[in-house]
Write a structure and sequence with these properties.
With about 230 residues, this protein is of the alpha+beta class. It is built from seven helices and eleven strands. Helix content is about 25%, strand content about 25%. It comes from Flavobacterium noncentrifugens.
Amino acid sequence: MYTNDKDIKLPHDPETIVWKYLDLSKFVDLLLYRKLFMSRSDKFEDQYEGTFSEPTFEEIRKLSIDNPDFLDYYKTHRKNVVISSWHINEYESFAMWQIFTQKSEGLAIQSTLGRLQEALAPEKTYQQYIGEVNYIDYKKEYIPFENAFFPFLFKRKSFQYEREIRIITDATSHNLNIDNGLKIDVDISQLIEKIYIHPKSENWYKNLVIELVKRLGFDFTIEKSDLESDILI
């Protein structure tokens, strides 16, 4: 279930193109179980994930002098927040292929912001929020904390190349012991508009992906990567 939050920044155009780059095993898991995996926020490579900038931390630290539970809440909260990351871009990204896929194998799901929102409708257990990540200087800039999702919608400027949109869930009220993440129900046909296969993949790999999609009962449009185009001289 997707829930809008007026405080969270998001592109206005529902046709905004978004991408998810992933390996074949994660792609098969998505199609086979028709569930979207969301990673626990404190398991991301960036150790600052879900934390505060220095100016904000100083303010929270002062507030927690008389209420130590205030700071402890933010530390434990990260374990209950799960995230699915998507990349905003009108075109394929060479950098995203390099970072999120191995060697010459992997896929990219192309979707739109509107499709993402609609694809979350089948999920009844967890509320989903979608927001665009803000990239700031953590030494100088302030992160507001009146909204519990804000710490997960800010990252350091070093990550600006990610141009990230996030699906976020706070599972605190469900009293779960989340390991690496959890899976949520999605409408796969709505979620995926097109599939792009790694530009450096061999023909056997491309055929494998095409056959897998077919055998699992889907008929997605599978595109040749634009980065694989022939050179014109």
